[in-house]
Design brief:
The structure is a homodimer. Chain A is an alpha/beta fold. The first copy, chain A, is built from twelve helices and twelve strands. In chain A, strands 1-8-7-6-5-2-3-4 form an eight-stranded mixed sheet, with helices on both faces. The N terminus of chain A is likely disordered.
Chain lengths: ~400, ~400
């Protein structure tokens, strides 16, 4: 241990070493944190009842090694849910239960990519997916996102031979854009003709506040090129570590083998509880309640931002999900501002940190999932103060 | 899907693709299965009580994203346990809670290895570790195991520049050998002078039937070169997916970052229950009971094998763990025999499948963790019949 403390030792310089550590000041769970949801509205009563039931029934069936793809009844329940709610075309045996969507992305990278594989990556995009692909040694090709989503033609021009594309078509992270129908068809056409894979991350598509949810891209795929990723972290609770991956039928066995090599199988008890929660209809009821709740939170945040910061920040993106993008209308250094906001306990994500190349725009990705309506005005006022103080000190500096 | 069914499509040819699928006939959970333990003796009452308690208490603290290294109270309890029971030198903040030892091996591979890294691998050795390292792109160097464990000098002669060594010093898998003190010191010396890592997999060291458990290799390490892996799959239940990894202090942060990129953090509820189970002393009591139980099972299996198969099979290895090695005294094709045994519902693992290079010896790795004493004689008689029938048909074939 003495040696260890002398200084940083040489670790691998391999793919795993290229996973970036988060900014040290991005700590804590203050207002606007993207990982926070309304946990105070978690369906405690139903889960306490189901957990107690499964605790009483606990027997050998839940204690041995399980199927690497997960518990049969949960796979059935998930398949039924994504077919009905998301328009995903699948049978239960195409579903793999995973420890949240992050493991789905990791698993996909392991099975389909190799060191050096090129992947279309939304620019700006989601850092968790970036980390999973980079850890597999993939080379990410930043492909611009415009008002229709990933610019497929630009991607093809940049790297026609990419092996995969990562997209968030229902609610692009972080811009909130909905991918247009024509772009979806273009992307599928490219995948079919070039033999590439599409990884569709449908992380918060359950929440749309102005219209019915838009069906998943996977439902349009006639060539089994789409890997569909979903999660219960946004619609139930991240601490359960429950997500799913729907893969084409001929890939199931390979995914099962590679998942075994990663951590064998998901834990059984929580799968059994979740399967019951879905099957008895409690999940559908919970989702309806949460949709109404988050609609209110979003509306309150948008109002507050307009009132307090109308001149400085412009809200973008669909009325959907658990976060919004607030672009710095007159430019600015979003990292420096987010750092100052963090000193005041606010947990904003600078938009520039979502870019692989130089940021085209500056702004903040603001989560409202964990912000109760009465808290919103004061959180926004605190953010407004940070931005105004920074502007004032910039003016002083340039004047002096 | 139509396209998908036309034939196997091209997946990655990268590291993940090199993870081997298990033999298709190695299915089911028949007698001698290595993954089976005495689940009928699981501490149901204590777990039902603790699960019910945590279900009642369920609150937001267990539902949000957690520390990638695991719940603080569980890390404390594990650190206290491995210090006392295994002689591991560590503080709680060096412990990472993982989804079973397989994830520990995967995580270690990701952080410390890169494609092409050379790793000393016990020959014969454990296929789960092989899969994890191969999935990271490592090149395994098969290093012979003799009656003192890994032959360190042979390893150095084969590949002096290896970046890591994987060992099971307390109870080598599959031979059951205990690594000698001098080999432990040789291995540590090599790691220190060459800057290599040692991955110590202590998967079933709690069970020694003739003497006190032998302390972990990690406790002898003065240079922070050992990554220590443990699991609750053998001592409690595999379906809980609970294991741990103890890493040198200066590596904790890197492990935390890479684990985040894999699946963020372990599920909280089961960690809270397990922490209580350890802290209240129930685990220590359970372990004492199980040690007595498996000692009986082992003795009964050894007796039965001597009675029924004394001339054909030679039992090897320490009186420890949950499996033994039965070597085919006169040689033979263990794969073909294991296949025939599988047709009869027996789940023996052919020794030859544990070799990376050509097998030096043939035999069977037999698990007795899941075999109740009264079942043992008939299971052994079934195995004896398979071996005798095979011998008889071989004689007929060579006579005819």
């Amino acid at each position: 241990v003495a040696t260890a403390r002398r200084g940083a030792r040489v670790l691998s310089s391999g793919p795993g070493s290229r996973v970036a550590a988060p900014d040290p000041w991005l700590k804590g769970a203050g207002p606007f944190h993207l990982g926070r949801i309304a946990l105070e509205r978690f369906p405690f009563a139903a889960w306490r009842r189901l957990l107690a039931r499964h605790a009483r029934r606990l027997d050998e069936s839940l204690l041995g090694y399980g199927d690497p793809a997960g518990l049969g009844e949960l796979r059935e329940a998930i398949a039924a849910y994504v077919r009905t709610a998301r328009g995903v075309v699948c049978e239960a045996d195409q579903v793999l239960v995973v420890n949240g969507s992050q493991q789905a992305l990791d698993l996909v990278s392991r099975v389909l990519l190799e060191p050096g594989s090129r992947v279309f990556f939304e620019e700006p995009g989601y850092w968790g997916a970036r980390d999973a692909f980079v850890a597999a040694g993939a080379r990410l090709v930043p492909v611009p996102v415009d008002s229709e989503g990933l610019d497929v033609k630009a991607g093809i021009a940049l790297c026609p031979s990419a092996q995969a594309a990562y997209v968030t078509p229902s609610h692009q992270f972080p811009t909130g854009v909905l991918m247009s129908a024509s772009r979806r068809l273009e992307l599928l056409h490219w995948a079919r003709t070039s033999g590439a894979w599409i990884v569709e991350d449908d992380y918060d598509s359950e929440y749309r506040y102005e219209s019915l949810p838009v069906a998943a891209l996977q439902g349009l795929d006639r060539d089994a090129r789409v890997l569909y990723v979903g999660t219960f972290s946004k619609v139930l609770a991240p601490g359960l570590r429950m997500g799913y991956l729907v893969v084409p039928p001929d890939l199931v066995e390979r995914f099962r083998v590679v998942r075994w090599s990663m951590d064998i199988c998901p834990p059984a008890l929580l799968q059994a509880v979740l399967a019951d929660f879905l099957a008895e209809g409690s999940f559908a009821r919970h989702l309806r309640r949460m949709r109404a709740l988050y609609r209110e939170r979003r509306a309150a945040l948008v109002d507050s931002l307009r009132n307090e910061l109308g001149g400085l920040l412009r809200v973008e993106g669909e009325r959907a999900g658990l976060h919004l993008l607030a672009v710095l209308a007159g430019g600015g250094n979003d990292r420096e501002l987010a750092y100052r906001a963090a000193e005041d306990g606010l947990r904003t994500l600078p938009l520039s940190s979502c870019y692989l190349a130089a940021a085209k725009r500056q702004g903040f990705v603001l989560g409202y999932g964990g912000l109760d309506v009465p808290e919103i005005p004061s959180a926004v006022r605190r953010l407004a103060r940070v931005l105004r103080d920074a502007r004032a000190s910039r003016r002083e500096a340039s004047a002096g």
